[in-house]
Write a structure and sequence with these properties.
There is one protein chain. The protein is of the alpha/beta class. The protein has 2 domains: 61 residues; 195 residues, 3-Layer(aba) Sandwich (Rossmann fold), CATH 3.40.50. Helix content is 49%, strand content 8%. A 5-stranded parallel β-sheet has the order 2-1-3-4-5. The N and C termini lie far apart (155 Å). The relative contact order is 0.08.
């Protein structure tokens, strides 16, 4: 019995020491796990920061961001394509290059073709072609009713280069004995030079001559509009170049409407223009009619 009494406390003390040892071991294990977790988090954080730093540096240098290790795979780097030919910086500008890919006039040309199919004009008439100054001349046919046939083929916003580009559709079908063209105004407004407008008109003349050798061609001078008053130096130069050119070509004329549209101070006469200060009003067209009629007589 005494042995049992002595053994019982000893057993309890042993169990207590074992329990305390287990708790200490568990605590140490948890502490070790926590420390490892901290180390792992720190390592992952450092790695993430390093990747972000590399990405930022790559973006600043215009390079692709590096992929994460999990997503990293072999890749193929394509070298940038090298142009087959490198254009010379001093190459001359082709004034008809833009027109070669410009299809903005397809609807107007289709409308002309449809009108011709419905009412085919007789050959040998007088043809007016050009930009909005021709298109907006609403009573053009009646203004020249004394002529046997008058055909109006103006398409607003067009340039001399467009008339040249589409001359086979604008001129050849009508077989006119006289073509009057007003264009070049919009060319200058878009930044083309007087020499480029002259080049386009020269190509126009050559194209008409190839199809219709006997057709006469008259160039209506570029008008001095108030809206484009800043372009008057270029307008004057273009008119002078084209006038000089027509003197060297058979069956070619220059009709000067420019001079009569200036006031005594050399400024554009605003009373000849609509409110937009660009297009002619009735008085402006009446002036043109008188000048052109005198040329036709």
């Amino acid at each position: 019995m005494n042995v049992l009494r002595l053994a019982a406390p000893q057993c309890l003390r042993t169990q207590s020491r074992r329990s305390q040892s287990n708790r200490t071991h568990s605590s140490r294990t948890l502490s070790g796990l926590s420390f490892c977790s901290l180390l792992l988090c720190g390592a992952l954080g450092a790695f993430s920061a390093g990747v972000q730093a590399q990405q930022a540096q790559a973006q600043e240098q215009g390079q692709a961001s590096p992929a994460s290790p999990a997503a990293r795979a072999p890749s193929v780097i394509l070298a940038p394509a090298t142009p087959a030919t490198k254009p010379a910086l001093t190459a001359p500008v082709d004034v008809n290059a833009a027109a070669a890919v410009d299809n903005r006039w397809d609807a107007s040309l289709a409308a002309f073709a449809a009108a011709d199919k419905e009412h085919p004009p007789k050959p040998g008439g007088v043809l007016f072609v050009g930009s909005s100054s021709i298109r907006l001349w609403s009573n053009l046919e009646s203004d020249f009713s004394a002529l046997p046939v008058v055909v109006k083929r103006g398409f607003g916003g067009s340039r001399m280069m467009d008339c040249t580009q589409h001359l086979h559709a604008l001129v050849a079908p009508y077989k006119p004995h006289l073509v009057l063209v007003y264009a070049g105004d919009n060319d200058l407004a878009e930044g083309r030079t007087p020499e480029q407008v002259l080049q386009s008109f020269r190509k126009f003349v050559e194209g008409v001559r190839a199809d219709l050798p006997r057709t006469r061609i008259a160039y209506i001078s570029i008008k001095p509009s108030p809206l484009r008053e800043s372009l008057i130096p270029q307008i004057k130069e273009t008119n002078a170049l084209i006038k000089a050119y027509t003197l060297t070509v058979n069956n070619a004329d220059f009709i000067d409407v420019y001079s009569a549209m200036l006031d005594d101070k050399g400024n554009p006469r605003t009373e000849l223009f609509r409110e937009d200060k660009l297009h002619l009003n009735a008085d402006g067209y009446a002036l043109w009619k008188r000048i052109i009629t005198a040329h036709l007589d």
